[in-house]
Backbone:
């Protein structure tokens, strides 16, 4: 295999794969940041994303008959989507509303959430089998696991759903993670 063959069939596809994964990962984050209201970062990410994309396309069009570069481009696209979503999961941006529906024990769940520093609103409702309590809790995404644990500890068979919230104003939000840890230890000490 000649030096030109190595570049065409190994090095170029590898460069395309890595660059495309970075490009699409940045694009995925750009879209997520925009949808979550973090719009100040989106134009910068868009610039970097398009710059990488143009550089990749120019390399592929030079060797327009290189199937390995095409496969690398597609593989990089797939990996970039996955990596972008994983990064966003780690950042845990935004807020969510957790809606819990209980036929009994609603007051206990709400009290435990409040004791842990999470705001909760209880609403009376009618379910398929009679009266229910709906508990609404608005929290940062990074706190979902803590809230779910409190719900399960209070009522193991509780029904709940988690939904993204675009904007929220005012309310009761936990001060910091230390407060959650203290409240969690207090609940375990009961």
Residues:
């Amino acid at each position: 295999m000649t030096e030109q063959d190595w570049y065409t069939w190994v090095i170029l596809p590898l460069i395309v794969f890595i660059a495309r994964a970075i490009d699409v990962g940045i694009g995925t984050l750009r879209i997520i940041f925009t949808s979550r209201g973090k719009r100040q970062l989106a134009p910068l990410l868009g610039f970097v994303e398009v710059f990488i994309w143009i550089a990749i396309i120019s390399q592929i069009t030079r060797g327009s008959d290189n199937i390995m570069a095409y496969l690398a481009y597609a593989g990089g696209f797939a990996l970039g989507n996955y990596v972008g979503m994983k990064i966003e999961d780690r950042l845990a941006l935004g807020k969510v509303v957790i809606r819990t529906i209980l036929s009994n024990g609603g007051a206990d769940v709400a009290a435990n959430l409040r004791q842990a520093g999470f705001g909760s609103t209880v609403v009376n409702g009618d379910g398929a089998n009679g009266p229910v309590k709906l508990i609404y809790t608005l929290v940062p995404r990074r706190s979902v696991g803590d809230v779910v644990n409190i719900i399960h500890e209070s009522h193991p068979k509780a029904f709940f759903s988690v939904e993204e919230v675009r904007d929220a104003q005012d309310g009761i939000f936990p001060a910091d993670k230390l407060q959650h840890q203290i409240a969690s230890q207090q609940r375990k000490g009961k």
